[in-house]
Amino acid sequence: MLVFGHPQIPTSPFVRLQEIAQVAQSLASAIVYFHATDKNAFELSAHCSQNGVKYAVSVASPLEWALMSNFKPSYILVEEEPKTYQNLADDYLSDARILWVIDSHIQIEQALKIRMDGVVFRAFLGL
After folding, report:
1. In order of start, what are the domains of the chain with their CATH numbers?
2. Buried b / exposed e across 3-41, counting CB within 10 Å, b at 16+?
3. What's the pTM value of the predicted model, to 2 decimals?
4. Highest taxon of the source (predicted)?
5. Proportion of the chain above pLDDT 90, given as a percent
6. Which residue has the higher pLDDT, 24 or 41?
7. Which H helix or E strand runs over 101?
8. Sign of torsion, CA 38 22 76 68?
9. Which among 15, 44, 28, 48 has a CA at the least distance from the CA of 124?
């Protein structure tokens, strides 16, 4: 299971984007992310996909998951009902890893029990 943001596990930083121009300003090692509800989420997804940028998108509904999955993000961030999204990804053989946004290390064990692809700490995302 992937764990992003744990103080003892080195990992690439996640960088929040709002504009396409910010992609070029990000470090190559960074994982850029944005929300599916952002007004330009489709444009950001298309740009990242077409340019081979490793990115994540935060979704809040199965519809958002379905739409954003078509752009082939590396990661999909979810806050509520993580198992629902993990099941969708497994059933549809999605290449995107589902990351549950968590607040505490205690939730890592919960994530293991429901067989999540991974977790990312909310503070690591700057949320």
Report:
1. 2-125 (3.20.20.70)
2. bbbeeeeeeeebbbbeeeeebeebeeebbbbbbbebeeb
3. 0.95
4. Bacteria
5. 93
6. 41
7. strand 97-102
8. positive
9. 15
